[in-house]
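Example S7 (structure tokens).
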């Protein structure tokens, strides 16, 4: 839930980056996270101390209309499980965020004590209207009380419970203003068939009949009907008029006239961020239009232009020099490269260093290095600063550099006046000098991005200077390869992040452009429509400054069918694809198969389609009686266990061969890797898995025994398994596995025979997966957890 919250805030901030692609947004967010931070010491006050903490000097608990005691009482009433919890502290504001947001909320810290220890979590309550804002109750996920299939409540019943809960938890919301998000694709294809049953619901809130974007409610209900997670966006102090001055027709004319899309090289990234391949795509600009002015809104500013303007980077006297030494750099050599680029390190001591796996496609190692002042090194209190950097151990390219300031808030060293010591022009010159020095061929491949609100906003005091640069390759933007630099008002570089993906000329040159820009713009326009909505702007922290959220009435350009936000149009085949993650894992809209009505396995097949373990072909058929390959079975089980398994690495980012016939290029590689990680298979680099062979019933029985992790137990059945009650038992090679699979009710014979060499159909595999699903909770260990 917290992750979802951060994502919503980030998207509202960075709508202008749509033109660059979501990878740019991701790396910008990462750079912000690596930015200057100040560790703030917050005293935790126990309930018995009967006192309240105020997180910021700008907050006064006396301003609260809801007392802290009432906030605690209301939360306990909403979650009966809290009767076993104790209140550890109550803060006015949110101690879990920096810089302080000056939100008038009560943050309650709870603790559950068990025989083996304790667990803590927090909830947030609006101090002005009593709305519950955030809650997660981990105790309800106790393995002893997890509800597996079949759940006690259906999704329809859980949805009613969720809506009733929202109306109790958030008094400011009325029933008529709450709208189920029918286009809620963020949860589709994300739910595992294994583990606890949970239903996720996403509701929109309407203000005077107009949808409030990024201001809704998310609720998770478990299979018992308990609400275990809740998030509601804070209510604004005021909302703008929902009566637009610009008509829909006027906005449509303006949007169509200015419709833009940029052709880009877009990476297909696997789990861990590793680039698997590339494609050419048109990334559309879908900026909202201010309903009062008729201009585009980017980062809260109105403009008739969409997207950034790209400015050439001048070449400086000092440029990056490639490392020519063989092998990897030592930590000291990597540190020296950083120290030469960032003068702030001259008074710092090298404190920590570690060699780690890199995230790039070339599998280079990276040095993670930390510097600190003497006070921090000697443990002399919380005051001082530290710096950290990441350096490619083979090329010497600095990937990231950041500054952490530890001390009271506000920092003691902060100037009394916000007047800059250096001008923006001087800061830009320093940024361009740095980028020439540490980024290869910076003046040839990078361009600086100027956005519509590049000028300083006089309503917000200047805190620093920030510049963004974008990489290009043969005239086209490389999606995700951007550089962000932040300088303080004295001209010191405090943060740097530069993503640089390895490009292969042969691979990039082989990409075919079959769709013209005019064709792309026409297809984008035909796929979208404009709707009047209230957009949430702000509500995020960037460069150490929290921007308060505001609402603005806009016309949003959205897709007519499905949620295609942050997708691009493939310039080769004209299809829509995700910018984030592996395109082969894109959640699809569930289509009811046309060929399973009255099928003997109809119910289980429908569940497979609902959870996207199986998908229909272009004609809407599932072909339930079609035999499957061994690799198909591995794929079905991996999807049922972890829908996004292709993006899940479990700490292993190096794609080493698992079997002689299962390399990274195999369509079954990710599924096989999932089985190996779960210890359902043992990798044999020199062995053959034969995943392309049709799946037999005996092979399936052995796989099932490994999935429930009873393969050692199965060996105990070996002496008695000789007497299997099947007429064809002599044909069964692995009798112990078959005996246990039958004993567990996962498989059965037919007409007295087991038919070990018979091929398994799609329908039979679906039924057996559902038998596994129903078996969980009855075993001594969980399946795949």
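Recovered sequence:
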């Amino acid at each position: 839930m917290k992750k979802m919250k951060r994502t919503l805030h980030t998207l509202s901030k960075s709508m202008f980056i749509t033109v660059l692609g979501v990878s740019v947004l991701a790396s910008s967010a990462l750079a912000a996270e690596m930015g200057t931070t100040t560790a703030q010491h917050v005293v935790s006050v126990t309930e018995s101390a009967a006192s309240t903490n105020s997180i910021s000097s700008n907050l006064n608990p006396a301003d609260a209309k809801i007392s802290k005691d009432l906030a605690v009482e209301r939360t306990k009433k909403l979650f009966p499980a809290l009767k076993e919890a104790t209140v550890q502290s109550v803060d006015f504001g949110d101690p879990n965020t920096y810089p302080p947001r000056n939100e008038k909320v009560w943050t309650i810290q709870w603790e559950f004590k068990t025989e083996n220890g304790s667990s803590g979590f927090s909830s947030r309550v609006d101090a002005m209207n009593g709305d519950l804002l955030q809650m997660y109750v981990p105790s309800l996920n106790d393995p002893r009380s997890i509800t597996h299939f079949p759940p006690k409540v259906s999704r329809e019943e859980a949805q009613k419970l969720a809506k009733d809960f929202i109306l109790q938890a958030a008094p400011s919301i009325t029933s008529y203003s709450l709208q189920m998000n029918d286009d809620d694709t963020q949860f589709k294809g994300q739910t595992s068939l294994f583990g606890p049953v949970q239903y996720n619901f996403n509701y929109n809130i309407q203000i005077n009949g107009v949808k409030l974007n990024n201001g809704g409610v998310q609720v998770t209900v478990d299979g018992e009907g308990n609400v275990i997670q809740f998030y509601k966006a804070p209510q604004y102090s005021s909302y703008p008029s929902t009566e637009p001055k610009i008509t829909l027709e006027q906005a449509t004319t303006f949007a169509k006239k200015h419709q833009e899309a940029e052709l880009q090289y877009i990476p297909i990234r696997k789990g861990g961020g590793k680039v698997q391949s590339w494609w050419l795509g048109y990334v559309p600009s879908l900026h909202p239009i201010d309903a009062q002015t008729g201009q585009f809104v980017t980062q809260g500013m109105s403009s008739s232009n969409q997207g950034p303007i790209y400015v050439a980077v001048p070449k400086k006297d000092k440029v990056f020099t490639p490392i020519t030494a063989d092998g990897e750099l030592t930590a000291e050599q990597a540190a020296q490269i950083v120290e030469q680029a960032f003068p702030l390190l001259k008074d710092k001591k090298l404190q920590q260093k570690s060699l780690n796996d890199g995230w790039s496609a070339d599998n280079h190692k990276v040095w993670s290095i930390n510097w600190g002042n003497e006070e921090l090194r000697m443990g002399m209190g919380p005051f001082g600063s530290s710096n950290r950097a990441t350096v490619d151990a083979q090329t010497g390219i600095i990937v990231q550099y950041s500054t952490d300031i530890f001390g009271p808030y506000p920092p003691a060293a902060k100037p009394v006046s916000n007047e800059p010591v250096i001008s923006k022009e001087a800061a830009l010159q320093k940024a361009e000098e740095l980028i020439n020095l540490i980024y290869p061929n910076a003046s040839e491949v990078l361009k600086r991005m100027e956005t519509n609100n590049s000028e300083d906003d006089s309503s917000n005091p200047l805190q620093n200077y920030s510049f963004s640069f974008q990489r290009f390759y043969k005239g086209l933007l490389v999606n995700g390869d951007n550089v962000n630099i932040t300088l303080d008002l004295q001209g010191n570089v405090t943060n740097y992040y530069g993503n640089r993906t390895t490009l292969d000329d042969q691979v990039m040159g082989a990409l075919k452009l079959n769709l013209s820009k005019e064709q792309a713009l026409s297809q984008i326009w035909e796929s979208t429509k404009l709707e009047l909505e209230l957009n949430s702007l702000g509500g995020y922290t960037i460069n150490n400054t929290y921007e308060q959220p505001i609402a603005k009435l806009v016309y949003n350009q959205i897709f007519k069918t499905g949620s295609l936000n942050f997708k691009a149009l493939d310039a080769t085949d004209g299809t829509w694809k995700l910018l984030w993650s592996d395109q082969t894992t894109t959640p699809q809209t569930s289509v009811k198969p046309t060929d399973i009505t009255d099928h003997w396995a109809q119910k289980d097949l429908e569940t497979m389609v609902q959870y996207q373990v199986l998908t229909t072909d272009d004609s809407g058929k599932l072909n339930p009686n079609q035999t499957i390959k061994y690799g198909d079975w591995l794929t079905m089980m991996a999807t049922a266990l972890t829908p996004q398994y292709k993006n899940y690495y479990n700490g292993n980012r190096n794609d080493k061969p698992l079997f002689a016939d299962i390399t990274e290029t195999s369509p079954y590689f990710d599924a096989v890797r999932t089985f190996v990680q779960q210890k359902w298979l043992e990798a044999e680099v020199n062995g053959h898995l034969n995943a392309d062979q049709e799946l037999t019933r005996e092979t399936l029985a052995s796989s099932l025994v490994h999935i429930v992790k009873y393969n050692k137990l199965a060996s105990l059945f070996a002496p008695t398994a000789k007497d299997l009650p099947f007429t064809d038992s002599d044909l069964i090679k692995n009798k112990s596995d078959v005996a246990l699979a039958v004993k567990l009710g996962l498989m059965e014979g037919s007409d007295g025979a087991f038919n070990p060499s018979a091929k398994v159909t799609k329908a039979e595999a679906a039924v057996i997966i559902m038998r596994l699903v129903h078996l969980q909770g009855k075993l001594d260990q969980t399946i795949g957890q």
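Notes on this example. The two ends are 20 Å apart (CA to CA).
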